[in-house]
Amino acid sequence: MKKTIVAMMIMAMTAASVAGCGSSSNDTAAAENTTDAAADTTAEAADDTAAAGSMSGAITVLSREDGSGTRGAFIELFGIEQKDADGNKVDNTIDSAEITNSTSVMMTTVAGNKNAIGYVSLGSLDENQVKAVLIDGAQATAENVKDGTYKVSRPFNIATKGEPTGLAKDFIDYILSEEGQAVVEENGYVSEGNTGAFEGTGAEGKITVGGSSSVTPVMEKLKEAYAAVNPNATIEVQQSDSTTGMTSTIDGTYDIGMASRELKDEEAAELTGQVIALDGIAVIVNKENTIDELTSEDVLNIYTGATTDWSEIAQ
User: Fold this and answer.
1) Which family does it belong to (predicted)?
2) pLDDT given for residue 38 in this prediction
């Protein structure tokens, strides 16, 4: 009887031991499965985070119209314009680029398209609407243009047919004076110096100043400031583009023409030009674009069609 009881106890203990071993094995496997699942979830979350921080999508390229001084300077500075075998300048901007006819239209168009890229006068940049990206590590600011850190810049020129006289001369004297160049700098442009305190002649009459849409905003401010010291003068500012500004000055439509670039050889042969400020060209993207910096090569590739999707840009 005792032997039977002992045998039964041994069998019970053996069964419990076997059950316990099985439970431990199952618990270990379950734990391993849970760990693997957690690792997979973490990896997926990391992938999702990386994807959320990366910009992708077909790039919408925006450019300015033919005749725009900003376009002329932009394509030259980034090497988008090249000379062909005959020495003729060729603008290699991608054919599918959408054309905007003014600085303000460029900004509103980029602001309304997440995948867009464009460029505007630094002095006209509205960072509430769009984002200016760094170029080759440099921020687009007047200070960086002045010290040469930001290299995407060009001159603002005015021009007259022959030497200016009367009211045109008096207004130009104001623009180049200490007071006029203060207006230039107050509006985000770079002054290259001034001629000292303004000594007006009290000239009367009316003149028309016309041309570049990039120069127009600062010219309007100069007009307002000049009116405060010479209320007898009437100055009309007409916005068009740099080429129209120069040709219309040559034919006498404008008394003073505005160009947001250097004068061309054929223009300089007939006009007297004068630099009134330096201005940067800001490369702009939509504020939702996660890319904050581009290289000069990136811009060249985008505008010539070698790069067509934001995912191709190093991020």
Assistant:
1) Belongs to the PstS family.
2) 46
